[in-house]
Specification:
392 residues; two-stranded antiparallel ribbon
Length: 392
Amino acid sequence: MFPTIADLINYLLHTHLVIPIQTLGLFMALSFIFTYQVFVSEFKRKEALGIIHAFKKTIIVGAPASLPELAVNGLLGFLFGFKIIGAALAYKQFLYDPKTFIVSTQGSIGAALIFGCVFAGWAWYGRQKERLPQPKMVEQTMHPYQLLPYMVFFMGFWGFIGAKLFDTIEHLDDLKYNPLGTLFSADGFSYYGGLVFGALAYLYIGYRKGMKLVSLADIGSPGMMLAYAIGRIGCQLSGDGDWGIVNIKPKPHVLQWLPDWMWSFKFPHNEINAGVMMKNCSGSFCHELLYGVYPTSFYEVVVCMLLFIFMWVIRKQIYAAGLMFYIYLTASGLERIAIESIRVNDRYRFSGINFSQAEWISLFMLIGGLTGLIYLGYKKFRTNNNTLTKTI
């Protein structure tokens, strides 16, 4: 496994680079980048079709920087100085465990104060150069896709909170005995928590700008499937613990052409140091699982990437509002329910039924998707039947 991107590069190129960039974090960032392009494309296409529309925005030109603007820029500078400069000043410690350093309270207060003032001063100076004797109101036309930087920021912010919150709920015993350690741990994030909170932020912002919720859901569906697939690449490469149950079964004859790791894998050098120590290994990541497990993150990469391609190919043939979203709910729910049957996860028991948090949410997604598809099918049947009746 490759906990950092340097591990992957060194493995492929036989180099000895030291780059403190987490593989999982990099692929999470890549998922945002590629998904952003998908969203832009769909926003533009839907606007060209007249499904969503441009809107007017009134701005004040020539005014000095406002206190909220100075505060936001100052906060960004503070965080930059505290963490980025703090990491440079404590480079050895950061290099040893970058992820823990980032989410910890460690950093440089001095650099934070300096950069906070610099960023705020920069914002103030930029406004001063454009300042007019008499500020004026100007109305601008904004296209929906121009909202995306704003949307992505709040989707990431609330998605992070949701991912941590859902994972905390799933580990209430840990929260009870170590509340601060659980809440501020560098590990432990729930995909569905991030999806729910991020989606709500996206829908709220779009709705406030006059876009229908169903249109926003259709636009976002292919991108959400792609984001999940890319994120799972990071899970597989880093060995973050999102793997399956023990699999000591012999590989079926029909799958002999596949590499052995696709059937059962011990995740050597995994980033969470799970399992047993490896022989003749030195460094921070020298553990592998005692027994091979199903590489479920790899399976999800393949399935979800194929589902994204399918959704992307058919998107221009879909005209019924909500259909793409219902396809996403059905496909995503069905995929996750299937993978949960061979995946390691915390499980709950209710009325004699064992289930995981992901299975519970996936079941609701599947039911919602199928209900939506049945409704659209019935609606189309009624429309065709009424048209035929009028014709006769």
